[in-house]
Automatic annotation (TrEMBL):
Listed name of the protein: Recombinase family protein
Alphabetized GO MF terms: DNA binding; DNA strand exchange activity
Source lineage: Bacteria, Bacillati, Actinomycetota, Actinomycetes, Micrococcales
Sorted UniProt keywords: DNA integration, DNA recombination, DNA-binding
Family, as annotated: Belongs to the site-specific recombinase resolvase family.
Resolvase/invertase-type recombinase catalytic domain mapped to chain residues: 1-134
Signal peptide: none
Residues at the active site: S8
Protein's GO biological process: DNA integration
SUPFAM superfamilies to which the protein is assigned, alphabetical: Homeodomain-like, Resolvase-like
Pfam families referenced in this protein's UniProt entry, alphabetically: Resolvase (PF00239)
UniProt-listed PANTHER family: DNA-INVERTASE FROM LAMBDOID PROPHAGE (PTHR30461), SERINE RECOMBINASE PINE-RELATED (PTHR30461:SF2)
């Protein structure tokens, strides 16, 4: 069993987590100090995940040591499961080496999936309302598109320079220029040329 411990600030102590993980039977404990659970930049967690082999068990003292969002936790646990790695969280009593632990994990995964579906539904509903109201107003007015085309075709300006001039994102200019084939072959192919 491999353990993972994390504290958010360098002032916090990992000792309590180490003790619990060793008592749970972990023979190796990876730890990140001063790393937030909201960020995925946790070098020791990444090292621990690479070290896990099929049949191993990853143990944490609490679920929030791995991450802050249900979605992030579920994705990580599903990834471990696909690799044949078991998981235990000592505080929450989740242990995917047991039938009841797998049930608990599936309940959490189902809640996360329901959350994703609700977000999708709200997004679709919002898009439908926006479309019914005519959608978002275009960032470039028709005369701006004409000018952008002139700058690209006659003055051979880069897409970036044109975007900067109109204070829009490069992709807005590319979309406007693509209709007449002026964005450039590399942009159409999905690679940048200028």
């Amino acid at each position: 069993m491999l353990g993972y411990a994390r504290v958010s600030t360098v002032d916090q102590n990992l000792e309590g987590q180490y003790k619990q993980l060793i008592e749970a039977g972990c023979y190796d404990v990876y730890s990140d100090k001063g790393r937030s659970g909201a960020t995925m930049s946790r070098p020791k967690l990444e090292q621990c995940l690479r070290a896990l082999q099929p049949g191993n068990t990853l143990v944490v003292t609490k679920l929030d040591r791995l991450g802050r969002t249900v979605r992030g936790l579920v994705e990580l646990l599903e990834s471990l499961n696909e690799r044949g790695v078991k998981f235990r969280s000592l505080t929450e009593g989740i242990d995917t080496t047991t039938p009841s632990g797998r049930l608990m994990f599936n309940v959490i995964a189902s809640v996360a999936e329901m959350e994703r579906e609700l977000i999708r539904e709200r997004t679709r509903a919002g898009l439908a309302v926006a479309t019914g109201k005519g959608g978002r107003p275009p960032r470039l007015q028709p005369h701006d598109v004409v000018e952008a085309r002139r700058l690209r075709e006659k003055e051979k300006q880069t897409v970036e320079a044109i975007a900067k001039r109109f204070k829009v994102h490069r992709s807005t200019i590319i979309r406007a220029l693509r209709t007449d084939g002026l964005a450039g072959a590399a942009y159409k192919a999905g690679t940048r040329s200028d």
